[in-house]
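As a warm-up, study this chain.
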Amino acid sequence: MKADRTKKLEKEMLTCTFCGFCKSVCPYFEDDQWDPSVARGKVILAYGLAREDIEPDDSVVKRIYQCTTCKDCERRCPSNIKVIEIVKAARRDLVEAGHMLPAHSKIVDNIERTGNPYGETKATDFGVPIKQAEIGYFIGCTSRYRTTEIAEHTISILNKLGIDFTLVEEGCCGSTLHRIGHSKEEILKLMKANLDAVERLGIRKLLFTCAGCLHMFEEEYPKHFEFDFEVEHVVQYLARQKLKLKPLRKRITYHDPCHIGRHMSIYDEPRALLRMIPGAEFVEMKESKESSRCCGGGGGVRANEPDASQRIASRRVTSASEVADILVTSCPFCVSTLIFGNDLVKMDVEIKDITELVDDLLIA
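Now compare it with the structure written out below.
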C-alpha cells in the first residue's frame, strides 16, 4: 500500500501529542472506549500506514472507518490537528489499494447503477415542474427516497410564501463517496452533472435541506469547478423572511447537524427561526452549537456499523428528552438517525426536521 495521500500529512500527524483531549468528545469512543477508535488512535494508525510500519489488515481498516467525521475532535484539539483530513486521506489510500468495507462497496455500486446511495430506481414525484427560475431547491437523496416528508414540507413552505422556484434534475451530490474515500474521478462526474443541471435552469440561488449536500456544494465543489450561483440552507433563507406562525406551547430544542454546524458554522439562523414561534419555549441541550454531539450517522458509520450508530443517536435523543418536548434538526439524515436511535430508548420526545415544524405552523 503506497499511502501517498497520507504521507503528505506526516508533519500534521507528528504534531499530535497524544494528550487524549479528543477522547472527551468523540462519539465513537464514547461508545466503545477503545483508543484506536478515537482521533489520536487514528492518527497513530494513519502514521503507521504512511510509514509502512503496519499492514492495512481488517482491524486497521475497521478502525479508520469508525469515524463520523463530526469534527468535534478538531474543536477540542489543543494542537489544531486536521484530523478529518488525515482520516479522509487514509480512507482514499485504503480504497485505492483495494480495501473497502462491504457496506460501502454496496453504496458505491448503488450510485453507479441508480445515481443514489440507496439503489432506488423510482423517485417520488413532488408535483413541481422543472423550469427556468432564479431559485432552485436541491432535495438530496435522503429526502428524495427516504424522508420524503421533508421535501414535501419544504415545497409547501415555498409555495405558501409565493416563491417562484424549481426543482433540479439532480443526482447524488457525492458526499457519501467523499466521506468513505471513493475515487475522486467518480465524485467529479457527479459534481459536473449536478452543476450542469443547475446552470441549465438559470438558477441564481440554490436551496438545500440536506446538510451534507450543502456542505459539498459550499466546501468541495468550488475546489474543482467555478459556478456563479449562491448556495444556502433553507433555514438561512427562511430566517430572513417575515413568517406568520401559529402558536405552539411546547419546549423545543435543536440538534446541530455536524455538516452545517462545526463544518460551516450555521448556528444562529435555525435558532432564530425557532424563536419566531409564538408561545414556544426554546431550550438548549447541554451540548449545543460548537459543542453539539454528533447523531452518529455520518462518515459511513451508520451504513457499516448500524448498532453503534443507533447507540450514539440514542444518547443524543436522551439528552433532548431531558429538556424538551420536540427535538428539531435541519438535516434529513440526522432526522432519520435520531429516530433510529429513539427506537432503542423510546424517549417521549418528537423528532422533526425544522421544515416540518415551520410548515405545520405557517399561516399562508
